[in-house]
Amino acid sequence: MRNKDFDIWMIRMKGDYTSELYAKYCAKSWTDAGFHVNFFDAVTPETLHKHKRIKFHSHNPANDQEKSILVSFILLWEKCVETNRPFLILEHDAYLEKKIDAIVCNPHVDVTMFGQHCMEAVMFQPSFCKDFLKYISKMKGKYQKNGKHDSGIMMGPFGMLWMFLGVTNVHRSGIKQRPYTKYLGPQAPVRVVLIEELGSSIVHSGAQGGTGKSSDTLIAHRRDPWIILKLDDVLKKVKEKYERFDKQ
User: Fold this and answer.
1) Which domains does the chain have, with CATH numbers?
2) 216-245 b/e with 16+ CB inside 10 Å = b?
3) In 10 A of CB 148, how many CB atoms?
4) How is 84-113 classified by DSSP, letter by letter?
5) Helices H / strands E in the chain, number of each
6) Cβ-defined contacts of 26-30 (< 8 Å, 24+)
7) d(C-alpha 72, C-alpha 85), whole Å
8) What is the pLDDT of residues 155-204, one digit of tens each?
């Protein structure tokens, strides 16, 4: 097993056909390379009410699915602290394509981003997660009514991570900035998979490409080359029978 010194957790929506198919296909790219992958059942809009301790201001524009994504990450960051093990957190469409030897845990780096985009494959150190959760706890329930992002907003996991690292928050840059590394480009070892017939199972509020089950806009607005696949090819690889997809 390659990841003896860290744990891998792939977030997937249990019971959601699209999410589970992505997870099965992409997890195979990791297990075939010798990594052990655990699955984390994502918080969904239907189960979000079970996590009321994580507060969102009533004016927060995030939809329930976006809030569920953030809560899922918070639960995994808490688990990282509890187990005192570095966590590589994968989204269900994170495909390990190349540079397998690049997937290593550097204990001296708080955060390592292995993907092309943002949060699809990120390594977290437990000490960082502990401090990050304290930072998030101070933001609970705070939100500016004019909708502008500042240090008092509960936003998405990428936006909050970027602020805490000191990338987009001038108050945390310099002496308060945390050590991190990133690929975020064509040389990244992890790429995002998009199945043409299924599109994405995530609907974002106000983001380009937030089209739910349709992949047309997602493909048109992609910033980096995704791995675009046909459904039949995916099903052959995971060896699963497919029930006719309902586009409704």
Assistant:
1) 7-182 (3.90.550), 192-238 (no CATH)
2) eebeeebeeebbebeeeebbeebeeeeeee
3) 8
4) T--EEEEETTEEE-S-GGG----TT-SEEE
5) 6, 9
6) 26/90, 26/92, 26/93, 26/94, 26/95, 26/96, 26/193, 28/237, 28/238, 29/95, 29/96, 29/97, 30/90, 30/96
7) 18
8) 778 888 887 887 766 555 555 678 899 887 788 999 999 988 888 766 54
The one-letter code for the residue type at 53 is: R
Are 52 and 137 in contact by the 8 Å Cβ rule? The answer is no
- For residue 182, give the amino acid letter: K
Q: Which pair of tokens denotes residue 56?
A: 């969102």
pLDDT score for 225: 62
Q: What percent of the chain has pLDDT over 90?
A: 46
pTM: 0.83
